[in-house]
Specification:
Elements (H helix, E strand, L loop, with lengths): L1 E2 L2 H7 L1 H8 L8 H13 L6 E3 L2 E11 L4 E13 L6 E3 L2 E13 L8 H17 L5 E6 L4 E6 L2 H20 L17 H4 L9 H9 L5
Parallel strand pairs: 1-4, 6-7
Antiparallel strand pairs: 2-3, 3-4, 4-6, 5-6, 7-8
Length: 217
Amino acid sequence: MLMLSGIQHFVFCPRQWALIHIEQVWEDNRLTMEGQLLHQQADDPFYRQKNGDNISLRSVSIASKELGLYGFSDVVELRPSDCATNCILHPSYPGYWKPFPVEYKRGHSKPDERDEVQLAAQVICLEEMHDIRIDYAYLFYWVSRRREEIAMDESLRKLTKQYADEMHKVFKSSIVPKAEKSRKCNNCSLFDICIPDTKNKSLVSYYLKKNLYEETP
């Protein structure tokens, strides 16, 4: 079982994910620290929030054998229901409840699917654990202070399973993917560990040319 939160790192950059989860290295920068501060309240398992008839459960433990992932959902919002269809029971709150995961993010919506895939993985975990179907969930972005509803369609579910399978393949191989320099590297907290600018300079041919033959590559 791999950490569910890592699937967002994997979508962003498989090498970044492998450095964290295979090589066990980590460095913080301003963006990661701001994200940690944002999650301090969202991840407090002893904090409950009631908004009308809805109840927000925080730092909910989840897992999926299908995905091979485990972790936590920032918030699972419970909404009351009159029927047992696609609902769960909660030991502290009588009646039937429809659960909707809410994932908190520091910045804005992303140009790729990393946030949606992480959210979909949480949905799949809850569905498997409670034998239910969840049709949509939410992303909350702190900078814009907006909650976005994300439909859990089949294409997103298939993409999430694909990324989870690829994570397990890389983890099983224990081989960290090669560095690929791109614009997103500039905001990565592992830039100085990854060193994407020098991917070709680590080659033996580069060393021989520079140090033995006194040639400039």
